[in-house]
């Protein structure tokens, strides 16, 4: 049990299907920049960024992985020892949500037991109405907010919808993870209420284990 | 004579292929030969000889070649090539001259040598082969060459159109040192339209072009080029833009495929026009993200070419399909190559140069990362210690270098220089450069303690490759050396010890670990994504998974992980391994019970089962609930899904039940009732003994089994046999008795007309009847034996949890699976042979997993049973046309009569099985 110290290093891994915007999220967070037609990540990329939350400073060591299915077998190399993970999907691509579900299971089974996972539905800009209003464009969204929330609730994940393009909610993801990490370490297993600026934190029923699927008779 | 020689040659080559498989590289000697001369694998050595070579060209202006000693080495003849390599130094002189380019072969006049042949090519290159050895052997070589040339005549027509696509030919024709007519510049890379990367002045493109021009004149070009030290030198200093594509394909040998398969590229695209695939979806995602900074890939022309090449390859090799990084590699190739050139070059790259890099599991990539780490450890122990101490993940830095051939890591102009050498010298180049990068940054890297700094040092280094390596040196000559030049010198001088052999050895060392890691990952993923199977435990699931892949891999040529499916034949094999009730299956029998199971489980109706299909099926097969078990069985026959099984179906059920129950019906296995009987008999006996000895204490530990006691097994067996036959007879009788008529009205009408039907209208073959689920259940439940069959007998004789045969080596099978990933039609034959090789090489250890697995009966007995089965078949099928009651009775009698003989014959057999297969049975002979 360690005391929260300034500039804690946190190893964070990004997982998710190809072209959902993993690298773009990182680029937005690290350089506050956005690129169309970004070259696909080969293997993995590594970036760091410091993030100040309250009185603490967290130094994120971000491992941005390649999304294509066949690169999945490389992933264990990268999520090894990770304290946090962001599982990204594209809210306009249902298949990417299924893939996200798989990644969450894989992490629960294989990664560090106390890993903090955030589920992120990216490309919110695509469903946003042009006039910046509250409404959404019809028919573009393919994964509902509820679906994301439900998965997050089931598996004990943080949940956000973001847009790397407009930078909507991107920093909140990293702040949310940062908030959760020391508390998880210091408060151990006590349930926590951690609503950060109206973000939904569904961590209360956490610690579900992946081994319960496919149970025996 | 020639015929026998040819035959002998062939036998020898085949034998060599079988015996001389190099364990380290996993290649046969034959493959190694083809790979090292970059010729297609379809080539085999027809004849060979020691030889000295004289080289002369009509366009050679100076006579420097004449003054040099003749290179000595070995000359080989294959179906399409005349190949030479210097015995002492490969680089001194070697060639692979395509037979199509040979215009003339003659015996030179006045030769002082014993035997000489002068081979002249269309490009006016004259190769004099002075054959060394016994004259008759030399004669035979000449004879073979003549035959090969004659056979090759049909391919000569491909030469002319091919020449038109080679820039070297255009260059020579334009400068009038060729007899060929090449009037138009051949289609080349995008660089011709969008400019080549880099400054041609700076790279002295013109000078290089002139040097190559001279080389072509003297040493020949493309299909008939002689590789001399100058050739290697010119590749190393960097290829001129316009010739780069052609030299690449010449170096890696893809040129020969392009020659052989002219037009195939366009045909593939045409054949798959407008078709969709998963790979294409993936390709589309990346088209705009491939070298986006190069002008051509901001235009539709560049994007279109890239799309076509990647798509064509994904059709050509669906097992690889498309892998990210291929987009970058192909985009780079297309700057210097036409689509067709890039397509074939990509083929050779994926199949031969870096196999497994882009495969579905990327095992080649993972393996080479391990190899790289181990080479770092070997060559730079201090740095390695530092890396491990600080837990720096080296592969995150190096993996993209290998996978994208440095194209995504360093500025393109430099990456292309590395590619030049890579195509010439193969994958070792990647390692040499990678090691040199670490070496040159060694000092800085030793001061880093985290991945972040480590990565940024290297990133910075790549961005400054153009800068001076010694900016502070007082010597201007030193100052002018760039970091890139320094890198090449370090890579190819200092790390020249990193040769192919070392890489192959290191690969062999780590291969199994990598396969294991991947296989456990793949297995985990696949098991996790399976539907819920309530009747199968997690451990059993894992066993079934292994078994599935063991039979799939060993019995069929696979499509690789994830897409592996099981055809009917393999399914039968699989089921036979785990089900005691499966006896000989004729796979051609379309009406067989297993065929029915297979078709029913084949949810996609694709004639094959996925692992999920199989699992869902098995899950229902072993359902412990009697009612569910019966309805699952019923569903198999309810083909229309209307809850009705017609007359034909009922007959089929009873026939299948006879089949399923044959082990019990034949007294090979004992069911619960018989077991209970045996136990009773033993208990009686024990009890009797106890009573006799006056010991009536109920204390269990006191009970001793009499050692001399013999259960009258004949009798018990006989009882069971009769019980099963009775059950079968009763079943069909009752099924028809209680079957519902299809339409009541019809029945009434028929009854009215035909009064001769006395007892049961349903038995009249003209009356449509059906059996529904409740009736089926009732009929089954009415018989104790069949009730038990569905309740437990069948399930207990189905051993999902049976451990795999220990002889099954998952690693080896996995390796086959990975090989399968790279298979294409043409190679299937080779692979099959390889499999046979490895099995033979492994001796007894490589026996197929099924052969010794719980085989219930000896061969002799199987035959006997098959006959028996046939009798049954005939009996039941013919019912349709005859009086049921009568026939059923006789059929039962016939079978009973035959069966009474059998148990005695097979007693020895069944004794063994009882002892082995049934743990519940009390051992009564000890």
UniProtKB/TrEMBL annotation, chain A:
Gene3D superfamilies attached to this UniProt entry: P-loop containing nucleotide triphosphate hydrolases
Source organism superkingdom: Eukaryota
Ranges where the record places region Disordered: 188-217
SMART domains named among the record's database cross-references: RAB (SM00175), RAN (SM00176), RAS (SM00173), RHO (SM00174)
GO molecular function annotation: GTP binding; GTPase activity
Keyword Nucleotide-binding: yes
Pfam families: Ras
Keywords assigned by UniProt, alphabetized: Nucleotide-binding
CDD domains given in the database record: Rab5_related (cd01860)
Protein name, UniProt field: Vacuolar protein sorting-associated protein 21
Automatic annotation (TrEMBL), chain B:
InterPro entries per record: EF-hand-dom_pair, EF_hand_dom, GRAM, Rab-GAP-TBC_dom, Rab-GAP_TBC_sf, Rab_GAP_TBC_domain
Top-rank taxon: Eukaryota
EF-hand domain ranges (all copies): 589-624
Keywords noted in UniProt: GTPase activation
GO cellular component: cytoplasm; mating projection tip
Location of region: Disordered: 839-878
Molecular function via GO: calcium ion binding; GTPase activator activity; small GTPase binding
Signal sequence, start to end: none
A matching Pfam family: RabGAP-TBC
Every Rab-GAP TBC domain range: 238-426
Record's compositionally biased regions (Acidic residues): 864-874
Protein name according to UniProt: Rab-GAP TBC domain-containing protein
Biological source species: Spathaspora passalidarum (strain NRRL Y-27907 / 11-Y1)
């Amino acid at each position: 049990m360690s005391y929260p110290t300034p500039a804690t290093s946190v190893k964070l891994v990004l997982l998710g299907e190809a072209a959902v915007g993993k690298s773009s999220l990182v680029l937005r967070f690290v350089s506050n920049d956005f690129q169309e037609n970004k070259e696909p990540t080969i293997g993995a990329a590594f970036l760091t960024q410091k993030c100040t939350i309250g009185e603490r400073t967290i130094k994120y060591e971000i491992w941005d992985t390649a999304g294509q299915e066949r690169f999945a077998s490389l992933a264990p190399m990268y999520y090894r020892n990770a304290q946090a993970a962001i599982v990204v999907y594209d809210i306009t691509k249902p298949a990417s949500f299924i893939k996200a579900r798989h990644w969450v299971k894989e992490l629960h089974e294989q990664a560090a037991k106390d890993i903090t996972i955030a589920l992120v539905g990216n490309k919110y800009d695509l469903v946003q109405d042009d006039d910046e209003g509250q409404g959404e464009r019809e028919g573009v969204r393919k994964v509902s907010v509820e679906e994301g929330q439900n998965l997050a609730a089931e598996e004990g994940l943080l949940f956000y919808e973001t847009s790397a393009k407009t930078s909507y909610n991107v920093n909140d993801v990293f702040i949310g993870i940062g908030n959760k990490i020391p508390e998880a370490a210091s408060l151990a297993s006590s349930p926590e209420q951690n609503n950060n600026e109206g973000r939904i934190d569904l961590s209360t029923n956490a610690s579900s284990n992946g081994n319960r699927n496919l149970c025996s008779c | 004579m020639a015929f026998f020689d040819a035959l002998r040659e062939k036998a020898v080559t085949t034998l060599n292929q079988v015996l001389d498989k190099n364990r380290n590289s996993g290649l046969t000697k034959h493959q190694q030969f083809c790979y090292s001369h970059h010729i297609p694998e379809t080539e085999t050595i027809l004849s060979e000889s020691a030889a000295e070579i004289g080289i002369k060209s009509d366009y050679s202006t100076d006579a420097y070649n004449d003054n040099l000693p003749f290179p000595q080495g070995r000359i080989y003849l294959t179906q399409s090539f005349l190949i030479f390599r210097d015995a002492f130094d490969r680089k001194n002189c070697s060639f692979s001259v395509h037979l199509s380019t040979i215009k003339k072969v003659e015996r030179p006049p006045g030769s002082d040598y014993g035997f000489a042949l002068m081979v002249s090519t269309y490009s006016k290159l004259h190769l004099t082969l002075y054959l060394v050895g016994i004259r008759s052997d030399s004669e035979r070589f000449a004879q073979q060459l003549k035959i090969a040339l004659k056979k090759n005549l049909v391919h000569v027509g491909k030469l002319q159109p091919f020449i038109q696509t080679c820039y070297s030919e255009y260059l020579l024709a334009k400068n009038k040192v060729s007899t060929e007519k090449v009037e138009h510049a051949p289609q080349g890379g995008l660089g011709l339209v969008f400019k080549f990367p880099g400054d041609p002045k700076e790279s002295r493109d013109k000078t290089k072009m002139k040097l190559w021009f001279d080389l072509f004149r003297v040493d020949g070009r493309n299909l008939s080029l002689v590789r001399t030290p100058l050739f290697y030198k010119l590749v190393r200093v960097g290829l001129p833009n316009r010739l780069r594509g052609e030299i690449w394909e010449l170096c890696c040998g893809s040129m020969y495929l392009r020659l052989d398969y002219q037009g195939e590229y366009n045909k593939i695209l045409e054949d798959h026009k407008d078709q969709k695939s998963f790979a294409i979806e993936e390709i589309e995602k990346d088209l705009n993200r491939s070298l986006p900074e190069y002008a051509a890939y901001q235009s539709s022309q560049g994007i279109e070419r890239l799309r076509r090449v990647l798509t064509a390859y994904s059709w050509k090799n669906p097992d690889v399909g498309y892998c990210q990084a291929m987009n970058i590699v192909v985009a780079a190739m297309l700057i210097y190559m036409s689509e067709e050139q890039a397509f074939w070059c990509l083929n050779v790259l994926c199949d031969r140069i870096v196999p497994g890099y882009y495969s579905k599991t990327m095992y080649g990539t993972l393996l080479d990362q391990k190899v790289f780490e181990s080479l770092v450890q070997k060559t730079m122990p201090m740095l390695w210690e530092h890396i491990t101490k600080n837990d720096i993940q080296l592969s995150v830095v190096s993996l993209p270098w290998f996978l994208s051939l440095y194209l995504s890591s360093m500025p393109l102009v430099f990456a292309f220089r590395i590619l030049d050498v890579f195509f010439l010298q193969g994958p070792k180049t990647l390692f040499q450069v990678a090691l040199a990068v670490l070496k040159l940054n060694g000092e800085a890297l030793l001061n880093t303690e985290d991945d972040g700094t480590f990565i940024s040092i290297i990133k910075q280094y790549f961005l400054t490759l153009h800068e001076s390596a010694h900016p502070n040196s007082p010597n201007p000559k030193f100052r002018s050396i760039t970091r890139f030049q320094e890198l090449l010198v370090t890579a190819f001088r200092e790390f020249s010890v990193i040769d192919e052999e070392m890489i192959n050895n290191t690969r062999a060392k780590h291969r199994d670990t990598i396969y294991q890691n991947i296989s456990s990952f793949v297995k985990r993923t696949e098991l996790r994504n399976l539907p819920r199977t309530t009747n199968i435990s997690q451990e059993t699931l894992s066993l079934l998974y292994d078994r599935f892949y063991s039979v799939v891999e060993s019995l069929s040529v696979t499509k690789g992980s994830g897409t592996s499916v099981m055809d009917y034949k393999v399914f039968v094999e699989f089921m036979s391994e785990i089900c005691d009730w499966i006896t000989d299956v004729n796979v051609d029998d379309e009406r067989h019970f297993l065929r029915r199971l297979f078709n029913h489980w084949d949810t996609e109706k694709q004639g094959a089962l996925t692992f999920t299909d199989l699992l869902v099926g098995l899950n229902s097969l072993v359902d412990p609930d009697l009612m569910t078990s019966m309805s699952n069985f019923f569903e198999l026959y309810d083909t229309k899904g209307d809850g009705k099984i017609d007359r034909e179906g009922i007959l089929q059920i009873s026939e299948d039940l006879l089949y399923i129950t044959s082990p019990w019906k034949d007294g090979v296995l004992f069911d619960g009732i018989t077991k209970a009987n045996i136990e009773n008999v033993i208990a009686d006996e024990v009890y009797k003994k106890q009573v006799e000895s006056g010991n009536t204490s109920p204390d269990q530990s006191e009970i001793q089994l009499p050692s001399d006691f013999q259960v009258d097994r004949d009798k018990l067996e006989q009882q069971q046999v009769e019980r099963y036959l009775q059950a079968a007879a009763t079943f069909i009788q009752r099924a028809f008795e209680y079957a519902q008529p299809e339409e009541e009205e019809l029945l009434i009408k028929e009854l009215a007309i035909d009064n001769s039907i006395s007892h049961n209208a349903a038995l009249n073959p003209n009356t449509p009847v059906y059996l529904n689920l409740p009736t089926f259940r009732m009929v089954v439940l009415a018989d104790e034996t069949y009730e038990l069959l569905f309740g437990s007998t069948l399930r207990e004789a189905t051993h999902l949890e049976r451990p795999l045969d220990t002889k099954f080596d998952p690693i080896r099978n996995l390796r086959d699976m990975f090989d399968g990933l790279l298979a294409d039609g043409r190679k299937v034959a080779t692979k099959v042979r390889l499999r046979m090789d490895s099995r033979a090489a492994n001796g007894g250890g490589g026996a197929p997993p099924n052969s010794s697995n719980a085989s219930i009966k000896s061969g002799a007995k199987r035959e006997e049973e098959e006959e028996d089965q046939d009798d049954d078949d005939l009996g039941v099928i013919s019912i349709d046309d005859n009086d049921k009651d009568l026939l059923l009775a006789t059929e039962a009698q016939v079978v009973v009569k035959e069966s009474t003989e059998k148990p005695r014959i097979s007693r020895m057999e069944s004794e063994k099985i009882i002892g082995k297969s049934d743990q519940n049975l009390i051992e009564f002979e000890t």
